[in-house]
Amino acid sequence: MGCTGSYPVEVRTHTALHVLKGAVVRVLGEAARWTASTYVKGGHGRLVVQFDRKPSPEELARIEELANKTVEWDLPVEVVTLPRREAEERYGDAIYDLFPVPEDVQELSIVLIRDPGGGIWNINACNKEHTASTGCIGRLSLGKPRFRRSKRLLELPFDIEPG
Ligand SMILES: [Zn+2]
């Protein structure tokens, strides 16, 4: 096992958002399941989720650890194109972020990372480019998070190691 392709750094950073989101929901629970926005520039990324408090240092360490476990496990990043209705019937609103996909979009590109037990690590309707497996991302380190109480938004900046 191991990553066999070579990818532009922003593709690795973008794919890391999916891995990190899975770790965030594992550690902070379903309350953190809505992504409000994402940002990628070079090897730097930021995931912003709706949440109601600042996570503890232990929780943040656990999120980082789990995200890096996912990279070590080198899980396949599956992409399937489905009619929107079918995707919604199969996966519910887990595929969506806080801001809705426009009504006129009838076909969704679903990005799915399964955990080693066959459960879902992360699923999201996303039409960007991804690495073939999580091992291609490289190690991820979390920066200092910011919690914006008035907006109930938790910002999680991160960097991936140079590839
Ligand atoms: Zn994506």
TrEMBL record:
<dbReference type="GO" id="GO:0000166">
    <property type="term" value="F:nucleotide binding"/>
</dbReference>
<dbReference type="GO" id="GO:0140101">
    <property type="term" value="F:catalytic activity, acting on a tRNA"/>
</dbReference>
<dbReference type="GO" id="GO:0006399">
    <property type="term" value="P:tRNA metabolic process"/>
</dbReference>
<dbReference type="InterPro" id="IPR018163">
    <property type="entry name" value="Thr/Ala-tRNA-synth_IIc_edit"/>
</dbReference>
<protein>
    <submittedName>
        <fullName>Alanyl-tRNA editing protein AlaX</fullName>
    </submittedName>
</protein>
